[in-house]
Structures are given as C-alpha cells and as structure tokens.
Amino acid sequence: MANCITGGKKRYDDCWLGFSPFVDSTVLENYKKWCSNIVFDEEGETARTACDELVRSLQDMLSIKPAVSCKPSGEHFIVLELINEDSPYIKVDKEEIKQVSFEGFMIKTVNTGREKYIYIAARSGRGLIYGVFKFLYKLVFRSDIENLHIIENPVNPLRMINHWDNMDGSIERGYAGRSLFYEGYELTEDLDRVRYYARLLASVGINGVVINNVNVHYQETRLVADKIHVVKTLADIFRKYGIQTYLSINYASPIQLTGLDTADPLDERVAGWWKQTVDKIYEVIPDFGGFLVKADSENRPGPYTYNRNHAEGANMIARALKPHGGILIWRCFVYNCQQDWRDLSIDRAKAAYENYQYLDGQFMDNVILQIKNGPMDFQVREPVSPLFGAMKYTNQMIELQITQEYTGQQRHLCYLIPMWKEVLDFDTYAKGKGSTVKRVVDGSLFDYKYSGFAGVVNVGRDYNWTGHYLAQANLYGYARLAWNPELSAEKITEEWIKLTYGSDPDVLGTISDMLLKSWRIYENYNAPLGIGWMVNPSYHYGPNPDGYEYSRWGTYHKADHEKIGVDRTVKNGTGFTAQYFKENMEMYESPDTCPDELILFFHRLPYTYRLKSGKTIIQHIYDTHFEGVEQAKELREQWLSLKGKVDGLRFEHVLKRLEEQIEHAREWRDVINSYFYRKTGIPDEKGRKIY
Amino acid sequence: MANCITGGKKRYDDCWLGFSPFVDSTVLENYKKWCSNIVFDEEGETARTACDELVRSLQDMLSIKPAVSCKPSGEHFIVLELINEDSPYIKVDKEEIKQVSFEGFMIKTVNTGREKYIYIAARSGRGLIYGVFKFLYKLVFRSDIENLHIIENPVNPLRMINHWDNMDGSIERGYAGRSLFYEGYELTEDLDRVRYYARLLASVGINGVVINNVNVHYQETRLVADKIHVVKTLADIFRKYGIQTYLSINYASPIQLTGLDTADPLDERVAGWWKQTVDKIYEVIPDFGGFLVKADSENRPGPYTYNRNHAEGANMIARALKPHGGILIWRCFVYNCQQDWRDLSIDRAKAAYENYQYLDGQFMDNVILQIKNGPMDFQVREPVSPLFGAMKYTNQMIELQITQEYTGQQRHLCYLIPMWKEVLDFDTYAKGKGSTVKRVVDGSLFDYKYSGFAGVVNVGRDYNWTGHYLAQANLYGYARLAWNPELSAEKITEEWIKLTYGSDPDVLGTISDMLLKSWRIYENYNAPLGIGWMVNPSYHYGPNPDGYEYSRWGTYHKADHEKIGVDRTVKNGTGFTAQYFKENMEMYESPDTCPDELILFFHRLPYTYRLKSGKTIIQHIYDTHFEGVEQAKELREQWLSLKGKVDGLRFEHVLKRLEEQIEHAREWRDVINSYFYRKTGIPDEKGRKIY
C-alpha cells in the first residue's frame, strides 16, 4: 500500500515500509517463484488485511501480481492461514504448533516433494499480520526463504502507543507537526494517513492505541459520550490492523457531562454513570480496549478530592469495564506539583512509590498501573523507578517516552533504544537476582494478568512523521522492544536501517554508529551526572540551569558554591534509596558504589569529589560538555560521508538538523560550563574557554 | 455621567470621577447658590462636552438641575465660554488673559456688584473641558469658590496614552482584563465604556491616544486601510473629549497591503503609497493625530532592512502626514535582540543613543522621537536614558510605562509617581545645570516644535479598570505629571485619594503613605542595586535570577562566585557612561560617586564591596530583601486600619492583593537571597533563614 500520491508527490514518508522494487535479479527470480501464488481462505477482517498487505508489498517489491485463491496453483506457493489442525498444509509437529500464542505466528518452508510452500500461520488475524510483515522483512533482508522455520510470540501482552493529542489539533509535547487524528475539535479529514499510520504500527506489532492526551480537556471529555462517533471511526481503522482503541478519560467526567456534583468513586450515582457510559461505548465499539487515567496529577481531578485512595478510584471504573473485557490503565505519575522549594522534607522521587505501593493487592485484576521508567519524568538520565517489582499482586506496565520532550525534541539526534535497554535490563531483585524490569512488565515475574509497554508517541503531521527523520528509529525500536525486550539495540538498529535505508554496508555502519552513541552524546552536553532538569521551564528545550530551581515542581539540584546534588540516602537524606530492594538500596546508598552517571541524583557532593573515573565532578562536567560538542560535530561528519548514498530529501533534512544540533550543543556546553564556573570559581584544568 | 448601570449593578468602577452627593449641608447650600445657573452659548462639539460634564456632575454632587442658557438668570451663575474679547463676562486684565494658551483655561470668580459669577474660559473646547474638571475637583475638595483666580496651561504639548491592545482582544503586557476597544478582530460592542474611558482621560488632561499595540500584527496593519471605520468610530468618541486618535503602524504595510515587494523608504512607490494612504485617513478623520512606529526593533520591520537610516525611514512617512498637520512618533527602543550572551562587546544600554544621536538635525520637524525613561526597558531601577537632551534639533518625548510589566503587574502595589519624578527631575546638563529631563521633554530646553509624554496604559476590561484598585493612581498621576511635571508626588497623591476615597484624614494619610513608599518596597525585594532583569522570561513576573542570563536579549548581570554587575565605564567597561554629559559621566564613572542604587548597573564589584551606606553589597542584598517583606506586611497592616473607612468592595479587593503581595515578596526574598548565598557562600550577618 503505497501512501497516497497526489499530483506525483508523496504526501508523507514511507518510513520503514518503503518496499522498493528489487533490482538484484537472481534473488528476485527466486522470490518470484515462491511468491506468485498465495493460498488464502479466511473470512475475518484482520486476516484479510494480512493477505492484502502480503499481496500489495509483493507487488511493490517483486513487480508481480500474486494470485490469491483457496487452492494452490503451481509447485511453489505461500499459504496464509489461521491455525487449524485439519488444514492440509499443517505439516508441523503438533507440540511445536502449540507454542504459537494467540498473537504469535509460525513461518515454515515446507517441502512435500510434490509441493513447496511457505506456511505462514497464526491463531488470530493479528498474528497473521505480524507473520506477513516478518516474512516481508525477510525478503527485504534478502534472506534465504527456502528453509524458513520461525515461531515468534510477542513477549509483552500490551504493546501500546499513547497519543497526547488534543482535539484542537495540537499535541502536548509533540515535535512533528499537528495531530494525525484531529483538527478544530473534529476528526481529521485525512483518514488515509491514519490508515497508513495503523499499518505502520501493526507492522511492528503494536496492538493498542490511546487516541487522546492523558490531560483530558473539555472537548476530549466528550469522547466517551456525544463524540463517541469520532472514536468509532478511528477504532474501525485500527481494528483492521489488529489494534485496539483506548481512551484517556477525565476522572471528573460525571461532573462535566451530567448534572452530578461529584465524581466520588464510592458514590453509587457516579459508579452507575460510569457503568452506563461504558456499556454504551461497547455497544458502539464491541472490542473497545479500555481507559487510561491520569488522576490527581498536575491539577487533574481524581479520587483524592473525595478522600478515596487510588485503588478505590480505579476499581470503580474497572468494574464497569470488566464485563466487556475492558481494562483500566492507571498512571502512577502522581506527585505534589505545588511543592514549596524551600520545603526540604518532600522528595518528588518518592511520590509514585508512596502513592501506590501500600495498595498492593487492592486493585481489581483488570487494572494495570502504568509506571514511567524513572521516578521523575523522562530525563536523559534517571534511575529506574523503584515501584517496578514492588507490587506482587498488582498488574504493572512501563511507560516510555518516544517523543523527545527532554531529549532534544526531535531537533537533536537522540536514539533512545540504548537507554530503554538499560532500564529493561535493570535488576530490581524483587524476587532475587534476575528480577529484571523487563520480566516485571512482561508479567512473568509475578504472573500478572495484564502487563506490557506504553510509549508516548513521537508522530505528527510532518512529512517525515517524526520531525527528525532519524527519530523514526525511536518509534520502530520502541515497538520492537515491546515485542521482545531481549532484542539487542544493535539488532533493532540494523533492522531499521536496512528497512529504511537499504543494506549498503557504509550506510548501515555509519547510521548505526551515529544512532547508538547519540544518547550518550546528548547526555554529555546536558545536565550532568543524573541531576536532570536544567532546562527551560514549560517547553523543556534548551539549557537553563536554575530553570526549575526555585519552582513548585519538586525538581531541584541545590547547587551552591561548594556542592551539588540531592542526598537521597537513608542515612542522611530523603530516604528514597529505601524504596529499592536491598541490593540496589545498598548500591545507591553509598557514593562509593553508586554509579557515576547517577551520583548527583543520590548524593550531595563537593565539586572536588573524585568520581570512579578519577575525575573531579567539576572537571567531569567541563570535560563531558566540551566532548559533547565535539561528538555532535562528528555526527555531522559521519552523515556527510553518506552523501549520495542516502536520498537527497532525507540527506539534506538530517544534515540541517545535525547542524542545528551542533549549534545548540554549544549553547548547552557554554551555559552549563559558565554556570558552574561562575558558581565555583574552579577553572578548567585544560584552560578551555568558559564564559 | 454615571457609568452604565445594568440591573442595579454598576458595570465598572468610577475611578476618580465618582462625584458622590454632598452630605455637608453648609457648603452644599453655598455651592448650590453659585451653580444653579450656567451661561453657555458655544457651538463646538468639545465645548458642548464641557458643558454637559459640568451639568451632569453638578447634578450628581449637588442634587440640582442647573439651568443652561445664553443669558444669566439670577444673581449667581457660572459662565462657560471660549475666550472672546467682546464677551460681556470677560472682566479680566487683557494681559492676563493672554497667558491662557490654546489648551489652557482660566477660572475666576467675578463680582461686578450687580452680578456674581464664576468665569470658566478657554481658547478651545479642550481647554473648557479641563477648566470644568478643575472646577469640579475644587468642589470635591470643598474649596472656597468665592475667590477663584486660576490660570492653568498644560506644560507638555503632547500628553499621550499608548495602548498595546491587539484586535483579537488581548493586550500585550495588560494586567487588567482584555481590551476596552476590541474583541475577535472587531470593534467592541461596549462603546459606552469607551466613552467613559475618554471622559476619564480628558478629566486629567490627556489629549492623544494611540489605539493599538506598537507591535502591529496582520489584522492591525489593516487599520490604516480597509479597517479605517474602526478607527473612525473610536476617533469620534475621543474627539468629543478633546482627544486626538493615533495609530501604531507596521513599517511593512505597503508589502502586506499592496502588491509591492518593498517598504524601502527611498522607493517612490512606497512613499506614494503612504501619501495616498494618509490622504485617505484624513478624508475619514480630518483631525487624525498621526502615527506611532516601532521599527527595526524586536523583529519588527524597518528601514534597516533596506540599508536606510531611521531619519530616512521616518521622514518618508512624516512627509505624507505633514500637509495634514499630522505627526510621526518614532520609538527609539531599538537594539540587537539576537545578541550572543557570550559576546561581551555589545552593551544593549548603548543602543538607543547609538542608533539615533548621530542623526540629530536630520529628522523632519513633525517627527518626534519617543524615548523610554531608561536605556534598558522599564526596570524597577534604571539610570535615565542618556539620549534625553542629546539631540538639540530633534523633537523628543518621554515614554513611561504605566502598566506594571516589571513592577508587579498590578498584583503588587507599586506607585510609580515617585520614580517618574526622579526621572523628570534628573539633570542631563545638556545646556548646563538645570537641563532637567522634564525641560527636555516639555520642549523648552531646545524649543522643540513637538514634545511631551507617552504612557503605556494600564487599563483593561476589569471592573476596576486597572487590576489593582490602587493602580488607578498610576494612571491619574501619569496624566497629572504630563500636565505639569512640577507637581509634587505628595500633591498628586493627595488629589487622587481625595477624589477617589474622600477626605477622611486617616484614609488620606494612610493611603498616601502606602503609595509613596511602595516603589521602594518593591525595589527592596526585587533585583538589587540597579542590576535588573532577575525575572521570569517572557511574562516578567516573579523572581528568576538567571532568567535572562544566558539569553539573546542583552540583559546580563554576570554574577559569579566573587563579583556581580556590568562595568559600563569608559575606563574599563563598555563605555556607556560616555553617552552622558560630562557631569553625569563623571558621577557614574567612579563607584565612589555613582549612587548606590545604580552601582551594579555601572560597575562590576565584589560582593564584599562597601556601599556608601556602609554595608557590603551582599549584606545590602540580604537586608533589603528581608526588609522588603516586612514592609509588604506593614502595607497590609496599614490597609487593615482602614476597615470601615473604605467601601467594602475596594477594601476586600485591595486586602487580597496585599496578601498576595506578601506571599510573593517572600518568594522574591528567598529566591534572590538563596541565589546569592548559594553563589557566594557568605552568610547573612544577622543569621536569618536563607535556603
């Protein structure tokens, strides 16, 4: 399905689905042989999507028109079917086929002597779609298809995308143009683009999408009621691609939408209203996914208004969803956003744990807590939230931010997969060694009923979807990690580059290197050593060392003439470290064992303190900031080396962004270095220019 | 003219024109005797306004219905007439009457034996209005009217109000609700309120109003063309009160409004377009005042785009205005707003002088340069702009900011008259001792053709007009100073209080004291010692010591661990002091003679430097900031003592604002003190709490 072409001009970039025609004739002839006939005889809408995608992409790549029929015609063919023990094509071990889960798939090359076919099978239409794309990618990678033998199941049950789109067409923290879904409080007229978007998401295994901002304003509150037709239209599009639709809701909906004067979860009228509302939604959208809720957070209403805890608050709505199989996703981003900066007794890092951990066991089984990766808010470097693994009896999922709010807003190159890998591989020790975050959120550690990934997406109406062309990799990589967090960053990166830019080894090597080091580069010229928040308030772009220092947001570095950092130890500080299991608690508690990169998050230290690297803190700050700018320049040099090997549009666009990044990295370097130099009076050992 | 009353409720506050009924019977009976008959026989619209105002206010105060006729009926009466040598009522010395200028008036009690009358006379309708209000105020003050003998002429020819209103209804730097003039790109429907506003302005002698923001956006650019009807409607209202209407224009108008691709002032097509446009305006509004221009400033277009200087840029438009008697007011707020903070060679303070001074003598005589009081931008403390007096042959006027952008945004009490008095009394030494700013801007020092005052107004649609009830005093006081800069702050304050709150000595004493000290209080807890700019960027409210430190705006304090301030001396610094005449240059050049309150504006000094007060800079910072909060608390105590003596609505409103001010002064105190304590490590001598 090529994207809509108007007047000879594409309306948007293909991303990783630009299945371009093969020019390498040997492999082409072989693939043609296998792919010209497709056996397909399924009824379901999603299964049909799988078949359509297969046909269309084979056409694009191989310049053939594959025949689709319920019987094979010829010696070589493809079988695409839902798993059925009576099928004549199921030539695999019975035990093996059992390994395919509801969303998984099998791809196997079968040779019966008489017939040779590629068997793509799954238990659901969704699984078929995933299998088809897997197969298509194999072709793009020029794989040997004569001996395929693959079973793949997604590791995480929930692989969700969160949109922070508002119905006026704006996107909170969006850096790639306006909303794909809305404009002027109405549904977009460009549903073709939404269809392509659904295809993009399905092609990497996304199975749920929350279509509106967690900060639910007046118009969006109406989505559960008189604006439900908007939801239905989008749900119909996403369903075709095996994606369930969810809504962010306003906890105070009954107040806004009815005559009720309360949203108290223990008030029967409130519960009754939600039940009725949910029932009506499911009448219109029978496979509706459920709700996402930001309650009692950053001035959003919630159960605390009525002196109810968050289990009481969540369960009331979960109860309404349960008969329909709906789930309630409850965000744990709850903290005091009216903090007096002078009040040293409060530590925002502790908030999520304090608000939720004690409620373990009290939530209904269709409630899932959605927890941001770190205890603060998507900084370039944070420790892992101690809430992961700390609730045995409560479903948990992880929230990652694909949109680069604090990581360069898609103007800087900052590939987030390496960061997310570190988070997912972090051992919580919740059930002893090996209790990694990825095992918490895939549900295996505590056998959660629901769990998985939520990613705040980075797309908008820009031609290239993500503002920065290379930021497409963050969307791709997020989905791949949600599918299987064991995949290495290198592997994901290689896949994405090959699908998007082809397999030229220079291109592959160069872009891969650029991506994989980009997060560390960004960190180098950003706030140092895990302290975070040295950004301009509100819009969160550009350096401002004291930007949040005297504010109400609870995010302080407390830098003075001699020291910097927040003591979060049990011994002398806020006691945040106690929220971790013993092994981590002990590691963070002492500066001797706390990793350098987080040392100012956990400790308050003099600028002359020597890091494990052997450098003083102040010299580390100077060095990393000078280095960061040099590295940004290097990124540009590397990209320039690809001139002629990357298409002109992408090449020029990325080059411009990289130049902007260098300029802005200089700004970061000089502001941060000047700030610390002016404050400490300690000169750079190397005598470089500081202002 | 009471303000429109709907359903028994006033729609807006009367401000100082709440002429309430007299209850003191002796004086009432006497005033009634004099005021029941008015002799008036003028034709002009503005003169009729004067008479209407007299009648209506006498009704309100004295509960009478004065008879108006062309002949007196009775022994006592008032004569209201344009000066006419043949008038039977003109019983004054011929030489004396010559002293009345075009905008002045005479009020004289005449006793011919047979007849006793109060003679209010002027050379213009405008003068009559001013005379009437003067007389009415005399009544409010319970003055003896049996021996009046007054001649008053305004000192400044231009007494203007600048509105920063946008046609969408917003006001740039407005803190009192939305625009009085516009909403949704249309003229307001509430023209009654505009009429009351015109009355308010006329009652204190304002004679010109610029009705739109100096930052002229798309819709406002159209005011000179297809939206001229909007201007006409407002001009018709203001004219009735003797006020001329002016427009802010977009220098790039010919580009926006026609097919022209240039706004080059030396391009004949451009000049031709402006001539045509101006001619059309005067067809619709024959007494149109002229234009105000912000060119080449903060991203506004201007002659620099075409490599023309500002004399060339201004004269081209002035030429179009001249045949109609129109004037061109050209703002000198021109500086590099894309400065690299690392570039120490640029000093924004020098910009206005550098851009204009060398052009002296090159401007047409209907061009007036409008100069902000200080060289930066309306900070709580700045030196006087060195441009005043530095251009012998170029008309100059002063721009003051009545709206409290940097001085508490009408949430803090900050009465600006004492500050403006200091500015006006500042001796520039341009023509030797006594060359005060007030003598520059009243035109007397260099015999300017046009000159005077412009004030960026603080009104909006709030019930009380100015956000803070007591901020009404800034509008009143501004106009009074424009009328006569010799008036003392105490005198103006007393007038305003008596007109607004009556003559109770407690009320008078208390409010007067509160107002007169409020600017110093605000300064105490604000940025110290003339350094300025320690505010949150963009909205300019609340403390943020480094808010502008690493920005492009050219406003830096350069505080480091040891020193703070900008060296602007000739000897070691930017050389800004050289822009002053010798006496001031020498005063500012040395820290020994530079006044304490400006010392960090002119000098970079260690925190341990001893001020003339005997205190170190750091201790001065701590002391003033602690003191400022205590003083803010005292303001509240003083106001509380007026309970029952000030009407409830005003009392409660002001009380709330004062409480907010205390809270916010604490924030200022703690942020500024903490900032310096953390930076210097020098403790407060008195051991008070710093964070």
Structural notes for this entry:
Two copies of one chain form a homodimer. With 691 residues, chain A is of the alpha/beta class. Chain A has helices at residues 25-35, 45-62, 94-98, 125-140, 191-202, 218-221, 228-240, 253-257, 268-284, 310-321, 351-356, 417-425, 437-441, 472-483, 489-501, 505-525, 582-589, 599-602, 617-640, 648-680, and strands spanning 5-6, 9-10, 37-40, 67-69, 76-82, 105-111, 116-122, 149-152, 158-162, 182-183, 186-187, 208-210, 244-249, 290-293, 327-331, 367-372, 395-401, 452-456, 563-564, 605-606. Chain A has an eight-stranded parallel barrel with strand order 9-12-13-14-15-16-17-18. Chain A has a six-stranded mixed sheet with strand order 4-3-5-7-6-8. The longest helix of chain A is centred in the C-terminal third of the chain and has 33 residues, at 648-680. The first copy, chain A, is globular and about 80 Å long.
Short description:
The structure is a homodimer of 691-residue chains. With 691 residues, chain A is of the alpha/beta class.
Structural class of chain A: alpha/beta
Shape designation of chain A:
globular
Biggest interface goes to: A-B, 23 and 23 residues
Order of neighbouring strands in the sheet with most strands of chain A? 9-12-13-14-15-16-17-18
Could you give the distance between the termini of chain A? 55 Å
Please mark out the parts of chain A with pLDDT under 50 across 5 or more consecutive residues, or reply none.
Answer: none
- Share of residues in strands of chain A: 5-15%
Radius of gyration of chain A: 26 Å
Helix percentage of chain A: 25-40%
Instruction: Give the helix tally of chain A.
Output: 20
| Strand count of chain A | 20
Mean pLDDT of chain A: 96
How would you describe the oligomerization state of the chains in this entry? homodimer
Largest sheet of chain A, described in full? Answer: 8 strands, parallel, barrel
